Amino acid sequence: MRPTFIDSFTQDVSIDLSNTALLIIDMQNATGNREMGLGKKLAAEGAFADAEYRFNRIEQILIPNIQKLAKGFRDIGAKVIYITYGSNLPDGSDVPEHIAGIVKATNNLEGQPEHEIVADLTPLSGELVLNKTTMGAFRSTGIHSHLSAMGIKTLVCVGVSTNNCVAMTAMEACDAQYRVIIVSDGTGTDSEEMQEATLTMLGRLWAKVMTTNEVLDELAASN
């Protein structure tokens, strides 16, 4: 049984169209496209079965739901912001050691096709795309300055991986005084166990956990 005593201390977060942005995190070919990067590497090694859950969830759940959310935000003129991760240098030397291995192994280098956002979620012209070299976006991008300039106070977070870059960015945002919503069916990782454990953790003080339809309904009600 999950302890609930902390729930009453977790702040409620509502969507205000004037200051809420959709944050799409790390939906790139390097680890989000089964034909490239990580997927290609695992297939060549005969180990793709271990990643079947990840790529199925990305293709069948994340991409369709993120598309719906992006359309919902764009239709009302709200901001859609993209975060990528990977090296800005061709030798991968500007990423910290704990992620350097996967960055290099998946060819996640600026200018390479693996670094690009998956085709089904291509940003529109004029939408902000920030590249990070760390797990969290607030550590290695100028996102805080951008959000402050745009008057953004609430972030709706989607993408991969829930237990790594999504969680780290969400927690950094919360500590920086942003209100955070995590979309349960707009995020994904490598197993249901990891997904549910991270959502449970984030829902305790860090963020409000909502479904895609709940976010869209709140957008419609606020419009």
Description:
The protein is of the alpha/beta class and 223 residues long. It has a single domain, classed as Isochorismatase-like (Rossmann fold). Helices cover 42% and strands 17% of the residues. Helix 8 links the parallel strand 5 and strand 6.
List keywords for this structure.
globular, six-stranded parallel beta sheet, Rossmann fold, about 220 residues, 9 helices, alpha/beta
Explain the layout of strands and helices.
Layout: E1 20-25, H1 29-32, H2 37-44, H3 52-75, E2 79-85, H4 97-105, E3 129-132, H5 137-140, H6 143-150, E4 154-160, H7 162-175, E5 179-188, H8 192-202, E6 208-210, H9 212-222
Parallel strand pairs: 1-2, 1-4, 2-3, 4-5, 5-6
Helix pairs in contact: 3-9, 7-8
Which structural class should the secondary elements be placed in? alpha/beta
Gap from first CA to last CA: 38 Å
Mass-distribution shape: globular
Rounded radius of gyration (Å): 17 Å
